[in-house]
Predict the 3D structure of the following.
Amino acid sequence: MSVIQGSRGATALVGMSGFVVGAEQIVDGELWLFVETTSDFAGCWGCGARAVGHGRTTTKVPDLPISGRPTVLCWSKRRWECPVEDCEVKTWSEESCEIRSRAVLSERARKRLAAMVNQEGFSVAAAAVEFGVGWHTANQAVADHTDPHVDDPARLEGVEAIGVDEKRFLNATPTSRTRFTTQIVDLDRHVILDVVEGRFRDVLGRWLRERGSDWCGGDTPGDIGPVRRIPEGPRRPPSQSHSGSRSSSRHQTG
């Protein structure tokens, strides 16, 4: 085990706004960085009085690897106390959006984990192993850094034609039926617009009604006709093969 005193270079290398590195330590092959915030002042959020120090606690969370070495942030977190006796607020710990309360990973590590799953093809389990966390922790990181993009209304702008396909989401169990989802895709950009539980035409009809007639090209998104399957045959060239049907409006009824 070796200890290296911190420096401006180490602080710059970590690159977390509002934090400085006080020391570095190699522990079982991991790089432990002892960090603290640069703030030395806090006001009571109850009465506004200037708080006084009330000791420190240490929070340890895995962070992004540095030069391929697993890295752990050891945050010496300040505790504050309100000096006003009648104030309902007594003590509290400082907070940071970089390391959230009760976090298992730093926030940028959670963002990186989500990118591994969404952009690089890692499974949630494989990404969890990379950061040494459990599946549920990794899956929550993926959800937190994916849902805002999935729900972004801008994803629906400029859509000219959609493709629709059904997928089996969960197999049947002794206590539940097989569950299906409907994938709705932008045929021009080749991106998924939405995934909706269910597989019948009323699922698509409800989704279109939620978009409104303006989005549907002026049509009234009412009942969707029965789905017609395309008979299997020789494969068409890639430029002609699509998983959905095109029409002058944004959807086509049967």
Observations:
- Helices lie at 8-14, 107-119, 124-131, 135-144, 147-150, 201-211.
- The chain is about 20% helix and 30% strand.
- Residues 1-6, 222-254 have pLDDT under 50 and may be disordered.
- Residues 104-146 form one domain.
